[in-house]
Amino acid sequence: xxxxxxxxxxxxxxxxxxxxxxxxxxxxxxxxxxxxxxxxxxxxxxxxxxxxxxxxxxxxxxxxxxxxxxxxxxxxxxxxxxxxxxxxxxxxxxxxxxxxxxxxxxxxxxxxxxxxxxxxxxxxxxxxxxxxxxxxxxxxxxxxxxxxxxxxxxxxxxxxxxxxxxxxxxxxxxxxxxxxxxxxxxxxxxxxxxxxxxxxxxxxxxxxxxxxxxxxxxxxxxxxxxxxxxxxxxxxxxxxxxxxxxxxxxxxxxxxxxxxxxxxxxxxxxxxxxxxxxxxxxxxxxxxxxxxxxxxxxxxxxxxxxxxxxxxxxxxxxxxxxxxxxxxxxxxxxxxxxxxxxxxxxxxxxxxxxxxxxxxxxxxxxxxxxxxxxxxx
Length: 377
Fold this sequence. Notes:
Elements: H1 2-13, H2 36-39, E1 49-53, H3 54-66, E2 73-81, E3 84-92, H4 101-121, E4 128-135, H5 143-155, E5 161-166, H6 167-171, E6 176-182, H7 184-192, H8 197-203, E7 211-214, E8 216-219, H9 222-232, E9 234-240, E10 246-250, H10 263-317, H11 328-331, H12 341-376
Parallel strand pairs: 1-3, 1-8, 4-5
Antiparallel strand pairs: 2-3, 2-4, 5-6, 6-7, 9-10
Domain MPN: 50-186
Organism: Gymnopilus junonius (Spectacular rustgill mushroom)
Subcellular location: Cytoplasm
């Protein structure tokens, strides 16, 4: 009773509610045409090219060289504006060796969240627009890359991109950076988790139509351009000639990598091709075995159905009631058609190794002829 009287006293002490005035009708102004693309972040502006900052290039190269293996990968940060994907920053993701998949995934997720939170605190770019992956000898097709890119394409505008950095080309003095994203046909089959023969034929999927390349440009800011110019400019009096006079030289020092004939790379490339072909033959053998199993089970089911029809016809002829039709799927466990995605990825690896071998062998052949000519002289 005391609580009720206290509540009544508090209610009486409050001011009486005033009649609320009707809310004014909001008015909307049309967005100027010059600002429509900037303000409307959902506008369907086609992606024209990817712009990679010079700082990101140096960070990716550094990470790929220092990584314990060729599996260096990380996230790309930047801005997607007016059809241009500007990559202004990146950071590496940890590589776990010998850990369980769940533990490594959780550790990578915590590291990623901590890095993005730290970047946001210092007001740096913290918008994820894709990821990068280091590879060697041009073979970057694998299940992990496809799964990661599929997740990005479902969550990010324009699907995000994956930048592939080839270590073998960079080691020969040609920095290789290429941007890719999954095709619409592949994404449709991936969402349905159907990579059967009929699905591949309906989507017209081959290993060459899994990814589509996006044009990529590298931008250097004035500070980085000045630094590179300082490294490449000649310094008078830095190197002594044979006669004791001082000659000009570069801050980078002399490099004799161009004199390498590249025969070791050809051997390694051939070994990788042979291994990839063996893996492909093993996968095709497994698919053939499963296909024969499916064919046997289907033949059994068809024979059972034909036999039941003959029995029912005989019973009808004798004036008896036909036997009920049973569910064939319960009697015969027909396996689902196996996925051919792994075969497509292995074919992509073989194609990448083959293109890399073509480039290395042609260059090495020219160098060997030039070296032979110099010896003959």
